[in-house]
Amino acid sequence: MTIAVTGATGQLGRLVIEALKTKVPASEIVALARSPEKAADLGVSARAADYTAPEALEQALQGVETLLLISSNEIGQRAVQHANVIAAAKAAGVGRIVYTSLLHADRSPLSLAGEHRETEAALKSSGLAHSILRNGWYAENHLGSIPAALAGGAFLGSAGEGRISAATREDFAEAAAVVLTGEGHEGKTYELAGDEGFTLADLAAELSRQTGRDIPYRNLPEAEYAAILQGAGLPAPLAEAIAGWDGDAAQGALQEDGRALSRLIGRPTTPLREAVAAALAG
């Protein structure tokens, strides 16, 4: 078996490679990356692969039986890039694609969802065997705000009392490795999320508990939160998107109680207290 992972030098990709190495020999794993030299420390074979270069993709996928298509980080260009990978995989004779989609992609109000829906449709029309991992929110998406919260004395957001069923990237990476190496996953779509949802007020309370400081959660209108993010240096479109995702979370868009993730990985997902402690240890 040869398993290839796109975006292998990214935050999720690296964790998937490490999880795979606990299940199959490193010689059966191929890291696909735009700059394969950045994969030198992964201990597996690396090949050049660019979502925007179809011919090179087909060459990189020669001999690959199972492919993990980690969604591109170029929002707005993902659908085309993913279609390139799917076409190249089909031309190269790849047996199965596992794709990292978005929680409830078929009905999610998040601005991210459209490109995932398009990719899922492309997979289904390709005729290739496939599995879809609808990943929920990465805990790191909000844990990344901890330094700013500590500096400013408050955790800011626009998620109101919405519960966020987040899990760590490591949890999601482990699930990907299970599906890539196991049997019975073809044609399956998994809604993956953390076992215990939390509000941003819960996150602020846990941060306060672990630091011994009073770090309250301040819920802001989306426009105000976006302006603060922009003032901190984020491009306006990204700042508005992040605030918008919080607004969707306030309406329940990031909540999922099915516990499919913990069933796949055979253990509870990482609890909030451990995720916060890891973020603080940095």
UniProtKB/TrEMBL annotation:
All copies of domain NAD(P)-binding, residue ranges: 7-180
Q: Which CDD domains match?
A: TMR_SDR_a
> Which InterPro entries does the entry link to?
NAD(P)-bd_dom (IPR016040), NAD(P)-bd_dom_sf (IPR036291), NmrA-type_oxidoreductase (IPR052718)
The record ties this protein, via Gene3D superfamilies, to: NAD(P)-binding Rossmann-like Domain, UDP-galactose 4-epimerase, domain 1
**Which protein, by its recorded name, is this?**
NAD(P)-dependent oxidoreductase
